[in-house]
From TrEMBL:
InterPro entries: NAD(P)-bd_dom_sf, ODC_Mu_crystall, ODC_N
Pfam families linked to this entry: OCD_Mu_crystall (PF02423)
Protein name per Swiss-Prot or TrEMBL: Alanine dehydrogenase
Taxonomy of the source species: Bacteria, Bacillati, Actinomycetota, Actinomycetes, Kitasatosporales
Gene3D superfamilies listed in its UniProt record: NAD(P)-binding Rossmann-like Domain (3.40.50.720), ornithine cyclodeaminase, domain 1 (3.30.1780.10)
Stretches for region Disordered: 258-279
Length: 352
């Protein structure tokens, strides 16, 4: 049995051939269907992820994120968060790979890059939540954190709102300075603004920072528009949060995965009695979200493996449409299933 591999050249080719906007659009559509399926009880949320934290030499975490579609497949993303990567190694903060297994035999059926996939599906998840919770005429997007995720947050939201302005802030001047170039393809003008101005002027804010555990909030507890919607993306570690607690306590808080959000998302700041609404239930019953649009709303995004499985499906379908990817026999499936030494050798090895 062969494994279908999409390496970095394949994901680049898929992106170029399908187009960034169409690819993001497909993922937004697929996630919307996936959340609706969960909301209607046709699918289940993924289990909580696990991980190994490290403090040296680059503080961070390596996580495994599983999802099972019984009778079909198991998808597992292994993903590391290493916020020192851009500075020390010129590598992304988020690095990962996504593997898909046959749920019946356990064989590895597909393997692909998880770096672009994570950025796209995280932007797409914010688009799904914002379409429900933000005002449809939202024109000003604020970004706190101008790293990799900020690019796909701006991209996804530019596709579903009539954005006229992006206001951006980052504590690293070089990241702040280069953001306009990285987001130029969205066509939305970008301007630098401090967090207080972003809070005051934005209709939608995305926080996607690498602020340290205990280092938040990344927004001041100052004035904001009454209808502000926030996509809180960066809080995804125990102890790491980005929003002023007072904002969260008076907001209508919606999480992609409420149990995980209470453990490691923005909702860590809430008490057990404070409500955290599941995004899936709102996608299945959108009126409940629309009734909240004139007040402060927060999407607590921690990310889970069904989102990765759905995004992987989109990439694999597009790769199939364009004949991309490599098929490779990685696993040793012996000629005699009961004899591990029944090797299917290469001609060179057989002649030894
Ligand atoms: N919710 C999800 O599904 C999901 C998915 C991917 C990444 N994330 C999280 O999003 C965060 C950002 O990821 P990334 O890939 O963009 O990382 P990145 O390193 O590319 O960007 C993070 C940016 O935040 C900036 N920053 C740090 N502290 C700040 C502060 N106090 N105020 C403003 N800016 C600050 C950094 O200078 C950097 O530019 C990470 O915490 C990551 O774990 C969440």
């Amino acid at each position: 049995m062969e494994t279908w591999i999409l390496d970095r050249r394949d994901v680049a080719a898929v992106t170029a051939l399908v187009g960034r906007d169409a690819l993001m659009g497909r993922v937004v559509g697929r996630l919307t269907e996936g959340f609706a399926d969960i909301g209607h009880g046709r699918r289940e949320l993924s289990p909580l992820r696990g991980g190994f934290t490290r403090s040296e030499p680059v503080p961070g975490i390596l996580e495994w994120m599983p999802h099972r579609d019984a009778g079909d497949s198991v998808t597992i993303k292994t993903v590391a968060y290493s916020p020192g990567n851009p500075t020390h190694f010129s590598l992304p903060t988020i690095i990962g790979t996504v593997a898909r297994y046959d749920d019946t035999t356990g064989a590895l059926t597909a393997l692909m890059d998880g770096v672009l996939l994570t950025a796209i599906r995280t932007g797409a998840a914010s688009a799904v939540a914002s379409r429900l919770l933000a005002r449809p005429d939202s024109r000003v997007l604020g970004l706190i954190g101008a790293g990799a995720q900020a690019v796909t947050q701006a991209h996804a939201l530019s596709l579903v709102f009539p954005l006229e302005q992006v206001l951006v802030w980052d504590t690293d001047p070089a990241h702040l300075e280069s953001f306009a170039r990285r987001a130029a393809f969205t066509g939305v003008p970008v301007r630098v603004a401090d967090p207080a101005r972003i809070a005051a002027e934005a209709d939608i804010v995305c926080t996607a920072t690498s602020v340290a555990v205990g280092g938040g909030p990344v927004l001041p507890d100052t004035g904001h528009r009454a209808h502000l919607h926030i996509n809180a993306v960066g809080a995804d570690l125990v102890g790491k949060t980005e929003l002023p607690r007072a904002w969260l306590r008076r907001a209508f808080t919606v999480a992609d995965h409420p149990e995980q959000a209470r453990r490691e998302g923005e909702s860590q700041q809430l008490g057990p009695a404070d409500p955290v609404t599941g995004l899936a239930g709102l996608v299945a019953d959108p009126q409940r979200a629309r009734d909240r649009r004139d007040g402060l709303t927060v999407f607590d995004s921690t990310g889970f493996a069904l989102e990765d499985a759905l995004a992987m499906e989109v990439f694999l379908e597009a790769a199939a449409e364009h004949g991309l990817g490599t098929r490779m026999s990685i696993e040793h499936h012996p000629a005699d299933a009961l004899d591990p030494y029944a090797l299917q050798q290469t001609p060179a090895a057989a002649s030894l």
